Predict the structure.
Amino acid sequence: MNRWTLIDRLVSACACAILAAGVAVAQSTPDETRDVDRPTLERRLGEEEQIQKRNEWFFSSRTAGTSNADDRARLRREAVAQAKRALDQQKALRAEGLAETLNPWAPKGPTPSNFGGWAFGTVSGRATAVAADWAGGVLYFGSAAGGLWKSTDDGLSWTQLFADVGTMAVAAIEHDPADPDTIWVGTGDNVVSCESYFGLGLYRSTDGGNSWESRNGSGSNTLEDLASFADVIVDPRNSDHLVVGGRIRQCNDGSGLHGGIYKSTDAGLNWTVQLASKQVYEIQQDPTVMDTFWAATDDGIYKSTDNAVTWTQQTNNGIPGDDSGRCELAIAPSATATVYALFASAPDGQPSLWRTTDGGNSWEERTSGSAACDGQC
């Protein structure tokens, strides 16, 4: 591959990530934002109309103006120009002293862009996964349709690692705690379904991302064409023990069946399904009691106490269960019997935040409605 072909491919990949259905932030002018309370400002910075216009623009641009090489080059130039305009806008806000007020975070990834002639403001592709090798000073970043990136200088510069894999949809990244040069990546955007960006399964690199191999199993012991990934867990006690899960499988033949949780004890050569036909949004391993795993699914929260072999649905005290929809969970590092679960639309179609402090023996609802989660939740 010559230098210009590589640059052309990377620009196209970046443009895809930039123009993907990401989290839109519509910038207000300095005068409009000075006296607006934060909840009102947050709602103004990108909701219903912006989401609709973003989707319209996304799909229309896939068919318009790409009949020949000159048109494709023109679109790439426009994407670069949009990125420059977005950077200029951010600099103008910073000069007014407003950028840090609205967003105290410093940008570390690829430069965002704007959507065509409609005033979305700064927009970037959805950031789906971040992993860090703290000892080695390495960052890994994945996006919904923009591939896998690596930085060795604290995010000042990035190298694309996935250009030749066959998919640019990255959902989960994990490096082996025993060998930071071994990296696992689950492909496929876990937020959306088959009509968008499904992946090609699980990949492993043993040389820091320079080369990749598929680790989807073989014969009857496979990941069943898992098309989107929630998490990849590498057991710190045993690098051959992996637990993965996701929402959708078999997108490659159009069936789009529910996913599940899968387990391997030989570094991905063979897999067994441990929790079948579930849309899995999150999997976490207890950092102290490592035989304990938690999972957030479309049927509520599940727990395993036997190293991810069997799973029990959490039902105590009315915590949302069957058909609960999207949910996420987190284990408190300081007290791992404390687990939080956030539901986007349960119970009764409303968001709710739940907590257990005794490992799931009892649950309590902490807050609900807009106080628990708002907007796109």
Observations:
- The first helix runs from residue 3 to 19.
- Confidence is low (pLDDT under 50) at residues 1-36.
- The longest strand covers residues 179-187.
